[in-house]
């Protein structure tokens, strides 16, 4: 079974990936903009935060800078799409590829260790909580704050305009909404959240690495789709809740799979498990519906 | 008042599919007029409406709305003056948003949108009283998703949304064409009521000559991207479809070969 440390660790990373899932919800679901920039903006956030922290900047300021860096990356993707008419998926791939070089430049080397540095977590260790509980508590607070702010934003005039842009751009324009500006704002916000996730991840893992972004998009999507299968996203609040629940359950599922020795799975099987879980999360809700309709048809 | 002068627009310029949609279209609609626009397929009706709304940019000519030259402005910068209902009943509303959220989008048409709550408590009474004029019971379903409504109901709400805030002109693009006959009659009657009550200036494209004569105060016929005739007032009273055909033939020396116009 899962050890206490593995359990807390899974929840901790789940909360971080919940932020990524918020971002992916914004781009994929709200704006209908398949954005792969996140594979680059996650390590970008980590790199910016790490390099600022080792240069003595306050870790919260460094984390804020990581958010801004992520937003800038998202804005580049959106502008490539809106202003230069590059297909959204391709625009995001271009930014993602470019960010690999940018991240190496920012760090000056492939990875930056944060061992012994002051991070956003440091003061919390002095509060007398269990060592492994500290990141869980702090990240839970951050995630809840982000969820609340995003929920309020989605209900605001601008947020509603953004939802209309993704759902029906022609109607949105007819209502006087600058749809291009909404796409830029939304994709920037999305990647800002992912930059935040990257910054927190680096601080809790003790290092930023240029390859840490590989597959973030798939994990985020897995969390989003899995969460939606669990909690029907019939309102914005439920959709955001689904992101967090999905991300935590996803990490727990991974932790269980890796700890279940009888299955013979090892850490290197992570990406394979991810792909299988995503496939299941996409296929299962549909299979359930067709099963239900088949059963009810047989009855009739 | 809205005034279009000498609008020219060619699609696919320089390609084998080159298609001159507007060839010097001019039309002035005065305050309070309700103009019906007819014309066969390819006459330029929809292109003209799209040009007025800003969805397509004309190659030359000018469009003036309420003394402002809007020729070069994109759709969203004209939206505070130009309201619109689309032909597709699903196009005018967002199905994933609730009825009240759709109305909240419309109440801010063409205005700055901030970070305050989109659906404000003070809007709700206005939404309910507007919806109750439809007599569809929608005033009790403000929180329902738009996607739960039928095409006719959605088109009625689109119409309501277009008239929720003042505009210089209301553009109706064959907005009853995709509905069944009974629903189409209901939406058309609703259109007439709203336009009469709020004294709106409107431009309605229709495919039916009969409808074009029965509704509104002025009828314009388009052909090959130009206005072929424009009748209003006493001249238009008592006119029938066959008189329109006569007018058209006199103007052009042509016979209409589009059956749908004759049968509609």
UniProtKB/TrEMBL annotation, chain A:
Q: Write out the GO MF terms.
A: transmembrane transporter activity
Q: Which domain of life is it from?
A: Bacteria
Protein name in UniProt: Putative ABC transport system permease protein
Could you say which protein family the record assigns here?
Belongs to the binding-protein-dependent transport system permease family. AraH/RbsC subfamily.
Would the keyword rRNA-binding be found if you checked this record's keyword annotation?
no
Give one Pfam hit by family name: BPD_transp_2
Q: Which InterPro entries match?
A: ABC_transp_permease (IPR001851)
Which compartment or compartments is the protein found in? Cell inner membrane
> GO cellular component terms?
plasma membrane
Keywords, sorted A to Z = Cell membrane, Membrane, Transmembrane, Transmembrane helix
Please give the organism: Marinobacter zhejiangensis
Q: Where are the transmembrane segments?
A: 6-26, 33-54, 87-106, 131-153, 174-201, 207-227, 239-258, 270-287
Membrane topology category = Multi-pass membrane protein
UniProtKB/TrEMBL annotation, chain B:
Which residue numbers delimit the ABC transporter domain?
Answer: 2-249
InterPro entries according to UniProt: AAA+_ATPase, ABC_transporter-like_ATP-bd, ABC_transporter-like_CS, ABC_transporter_ATP-bind, P-loop_NTPase
The UniProt transmembrane annotation reads none
Q: One matching Pfam family, short form?
A: ABC_tran
Q: Does the keyword Cell membrane apply?
A: yes
The record ties this protein, via SUPFAM superfamilies, to: P-loop containing nucleoside triphosphate hydrolases
Against PROSITE patterns, the record matches this protein to: ABC_TRANSPORTER_1, ABC_TRANSPORTER_2
- Give the record's family classification: Belongs to the ABC transporter superfamily.
Which protein, by its recorded name, is this? Answer: Putative ABC transport system ATP-binding protein
What organism is listed for this UniProt entry?
A: Marinobacter zhejiangensis
């Amino acid at each position: 079974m899962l050890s206490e440390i593995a359990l807390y660790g899974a929840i901790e990373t789940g909360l971080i990936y919940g932020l990524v899932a918020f971002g992916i919800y914004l781009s994929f679901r709200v704006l209908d903009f398949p954005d792969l920039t996140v594979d680059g903006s996650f390590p970008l956030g980590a790199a910016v935060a790490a390099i600022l922290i080792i240069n003595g900047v306050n870790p919260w300021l460094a984390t804020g800078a990581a958010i801004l860096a992520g937003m800038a990356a998202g804005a580049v993707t959106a502008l490539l799409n809106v202003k230069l008419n590059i297909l959204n998926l391709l625009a995001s791939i271009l930014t993602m590829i470019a960010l690999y070089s940018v991240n190496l430049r920012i760090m000056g080397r492939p990875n930056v260790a944060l061992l012994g540095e002051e991070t956003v977590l440091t003061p919390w260790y002095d509060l007398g909580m269990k060592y492994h509980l500290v990141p869980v508590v702090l990240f839970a607070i951050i995630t809840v704050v982000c969820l609340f702010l995003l929920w309020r934003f989605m209900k605001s005039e601008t947020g509603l305009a953004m939802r209309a842009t993704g759902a029906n751009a022609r109607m949105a324009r007819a209502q006087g909404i600058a749809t291009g500006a909404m796409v830029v704002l939304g994709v920037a916000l999305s990647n800002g959240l992912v930059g935040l996730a990257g910054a927190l991840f680096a601080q809790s893992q003790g290092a930023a690495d240029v390859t840490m972004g590989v597959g973030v998009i798939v994990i985020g999507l897995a969390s989003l789709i899995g969460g939606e299968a669990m909690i029907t996203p019939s309102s914005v609040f439920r959709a955001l809740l689904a992101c967090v629940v999905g991300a935590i359950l996803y990490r727990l599922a991974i932790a269980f799979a890796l700890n279940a020795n009888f299955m013979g799975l090892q850490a290197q099987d992570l990406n394979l498990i991810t792909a299988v879980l995503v496939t299941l999360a996409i296929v299962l809700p549909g299979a359930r519906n067709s099963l239900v309709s088949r059963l009810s048809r047989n009855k009739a | 008042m809205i005034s279009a002068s000498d609008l020219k627009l060619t699609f696919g310029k320089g390609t084998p599919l080159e298609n001159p949609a507007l060839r010097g279209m001019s039309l002035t609609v005065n305050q309070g007029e309700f103009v019906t626009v007819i014309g066969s397929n390819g006459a330029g009706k929809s292109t003209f409406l799209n040009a007025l709304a800003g969805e397509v940019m004309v190659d030359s000519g000018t469009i003036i709305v309420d003394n402002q030259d809007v020729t070069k402005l994109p759709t969203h910068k004209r939206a505070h003056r130009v309201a619109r209902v689309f032909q597709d009943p699903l196009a005018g509303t967002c199905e994933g948003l609730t009825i009240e959220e759709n109305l909240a989008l419309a109440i801010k048409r063409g205005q700055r949108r901030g970070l305050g709550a989109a659906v404000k408590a003070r809007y709700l009474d206005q939404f309910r009283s507007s919806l109750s004029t439809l007599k569809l019971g929608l005033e009790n379903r403000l929180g329902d998703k738009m996607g739960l409504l039928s095409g006719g109901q959605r088109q009625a709400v689109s119409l309501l949304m277009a008239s929720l805030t003042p505009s210089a002109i209301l553009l109706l693009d064959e907005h009853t064409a995709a509905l069944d006959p009974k629903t189409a009659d209901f939406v058309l009657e609703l259109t007439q009521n709203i336009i009469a009550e709020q004294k709106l200036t409107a431009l309605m494209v229709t495919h039916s000559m009969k409808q074009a004569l029965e509704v509104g105060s002025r009828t314009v016929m388009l052909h090959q991207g130009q206005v072929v005739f424009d009748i209003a007032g006493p001249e238009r009273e008592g006119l029938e479809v066959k008189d329109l055909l006569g007018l058209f033939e006199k103007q052009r020396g042509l016979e209409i070969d589009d059956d749908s116009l004759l049968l509609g």
